[in-house]
Amino acid sequence: MEDQAPLRPPLYFDAVLTPHRSLSPRGFLVMMGLVGSVSFISGMAFLMMGAWPVFGFFGLDAALIYFAFRLNYRAARAYETVQISGGEVRVRKVDARGNVTAWSAPPYWARVDLHEEEEAEENTRLSLISHGRAVVVGAFLAPFERKELGEAIRQGLGDARRASNPL
Predict the structure, then answer these.
(1) 3-state DSSP call for residue 137?
(2) Beta-strand runs (E) in the chain
(3) Contact 137, 13 (CB under 8 A)
(4) Beta-carbon contacts of residue 41 (< 8 Å; ≥ 6 apart)
(5) Rounded Cα gap, residues 158 and 140, in angstroms
(6) What is the pLDDT of residues 19-65, one digit of tens each?
(7) Can you give the pTM of this predicted structure?
(8) What letter would DSSP give residue 49?
(9) Cα–Cα distance, 133 to 15 (Å, whole number)
């Protein structure tokens, strides 16, 4: 495992990337309240008509929706950090379980590779490459966000190179 200590200033680029979640925890509670209410009311209507098994299926549907969202929120604990200092480029990936993968390289040798497919823009891939080693960065981002991130990292690499070699 590579050094986990933060890079020393000056940092020419420092970003924390997290997967986007459009539903806040409060929104989740409201949505589950609505799903539970609709399921209960509909289930009671079927129960009163004598179709008692349907009541259980409505409850099962609500429970499955709840657990699907909980799994989605658990996956949202993953994040990536990208830092560029005068002496090192560091990428740390932390998955939802807390496992860390680290990649580092000197900024002078690191380069940004933005691979875009013309037919399918969603297949845009952003990588940092140095000495035959590569790491994919921001795979969970939207294609336009990967492009913006790639430009920002290029700028940070350029700033770090100029600072270490002022000529």
Answers:
(1) coil
(2) 11-17, 79-85, 89-94, 100-105, 111-115, 125-130, 133-136
(3) no
(4) none
(5) 25
(6) 887 788 899 999 999 999 999 999 999 999 999 899 999 999 999 99
(7) 0.74
(8) T
(9) 21
